[in-house]
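Title: Comparing notes on inverse folding

I've been comparing how different people in this forum approach sequence design from structure. To keep things fair, I'm posting one structure and asking everyone to reply with a full sequence. Here's the target:
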């Protein structure tokens, strides 16, 4: 039996900001169930710590989510935070409380993997101190402690949710880890942490979160046996993947489609479809190579109030569509269908460029070089499309879009080696068009 639903892998390849304006896609795919599928009954977030943000608009309301899957905004749906996520318990408590104040009920609907690792105050301090020491060679992290938390997980010294909800074990393990990390923080010139203060805060967080903690692997497999449809939600883009991204300018987990399996405990042969989500142009937040970066398109989008990070508020770097990177992302993720968002961001552009290859010295690449330095030195090879120069936000069917907009969408899907499935021209649900 396969999971009769959708595995979503964000292929907005540089940063993964797929839920910025123009993206109600998680909700559309989750609730509309195209192509004859039944409605999804469960949703799993497999590897998205709170250095990522999803902006979701439902009617007149806007929600910015970080750790909680966006399916929580629909009544009756169960949501899972998988084992692949590293969780800041204080941030998660605040996010839960914020949603409950807005009338979103989470009891018996949100479930947190008991084996998900914790982000602790020393992780954030280490992140800040290490980033500061790198100077102009900084990675551009959000300084939320994500990298050090995954580092502890790999080193087998991390604390997990099942430690957080056991006061005796939490005190024992946290005391040791703070003692060890205070020595490192002091050597980096940072102030040491107070065990007493940290323990009190995290003990309270553990008490609050305990009702949500469960064996989510068993839960997901039980749901599958009961013929539930499950949607897996990824947050960050392909080129932030720790293995397949522009290392070292990456996050610290596997953000590609395979991460849905390792981050949830659901086997690859249970997955039914992979839907890639990307913008009609390119964005990246933080440092690292971005071959098609263009100041003109950046100024245009920022001037429209677009492309600012939901988590940090940082202005994203913007550029022309890069089909070299999207082809690579399609290959790595096994993308079946493409959802292309933010098409309306290009409505006023006279000539739209699309990168079809990279040139580095005398060599031309039709794939993404693994050497980040070589990639940074690459010059894009462009083809040009004539812009449609008319608003698209009122379109409700693919045929309603201007012919030049339809041609552009078909071309970039073909260049990406995947089937065009969805086009989005605004944040409202009705502005997402099935092709």
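Reply #1:
Here's my take.
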């Amino acid at each position: 039996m396969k999971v009769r639903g959708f595995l979503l892998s964000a292929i907005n390849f540089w940063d993964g900001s797929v839920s910025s304006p123009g993206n109600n896609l998680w909700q559309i795919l989750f609730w509309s169930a195209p192509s004859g599928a039944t409605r999804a009954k469960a949703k799993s977030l497999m590897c998205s710590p709170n250095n990522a943000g999803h902006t979701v608009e439902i009617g007149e309301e806007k929600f910015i989510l970080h750790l909680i899957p966006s399916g929580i905004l629909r009544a009756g749906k169960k949501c899972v935070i998988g084992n692949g996520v590293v969780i800041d318990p204080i941030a998660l408590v605040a996010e839960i409380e914020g949603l409950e104040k807005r009338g979103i009920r989470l009891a018996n609907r949100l479930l947190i993997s008991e084996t998900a690792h914790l982000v602790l105050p020393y992780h954030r301090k280490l992140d800040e101190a290490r980033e500061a020491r790198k100077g102009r060679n900084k990675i551009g992290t959000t300084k939320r402690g994500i990298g050090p938390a995954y580092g502890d997980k790999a080193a087998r010294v991390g604390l997990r949710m099942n430690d957080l909800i056991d006061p005796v074990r939490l005190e024992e393990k946290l005391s040791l880890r703070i003692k060890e990390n205070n020595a490192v923080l002091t050597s980096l010139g940072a102030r040491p942490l107070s065990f007493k203060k940290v323990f009190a805060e995290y003990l309270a967080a553990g008490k609050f979160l305990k009702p949500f903690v469960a064996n989510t692997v068993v839960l997901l497999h039980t749901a599958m046996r009961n013929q539930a449809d499950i949607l897996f939600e990824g947050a960050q883009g392909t080129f932030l993947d720790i293995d397949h991204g522009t290392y070292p300018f990456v996050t610290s987990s596997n953000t590609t489609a395979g991460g849905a399996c390792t981050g949830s405990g659901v086997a690859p042969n249970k997955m039914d479809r992979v839907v890639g989500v990307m913008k009609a142009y390119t964005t990246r937040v933080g440092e690292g190579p971005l071959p098609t970066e263009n100041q003109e398109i950046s100024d245009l989008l920022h001037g429209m109030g677009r492309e600012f990070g939901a988590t940090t508020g940082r202005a994203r770097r913007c550029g022309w569509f890069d089909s070299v990177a999207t082809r690579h992302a399609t290959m790595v993720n096994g993308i079946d269908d493409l959802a292309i968002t933010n098409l309306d961001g290009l409505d006023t552009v006279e000539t739209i460029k699309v990168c079809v290859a990279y040139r580095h010295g005398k060599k031309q690449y039709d794939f993404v070089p693994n050497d980040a330095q070589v990639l940074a030195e690459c010059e894009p090879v462009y083809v040009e499309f004539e812009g449609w120069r008319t608003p698209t936000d009122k379109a409700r069917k693919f045929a309603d879009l201007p012919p030049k907009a339809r041609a552009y969408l078909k071309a970039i899907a073909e260049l990406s080696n995947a089937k065009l499935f969805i086009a989005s021209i605004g944040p409202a649900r009705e502005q997402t068009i099935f092709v």
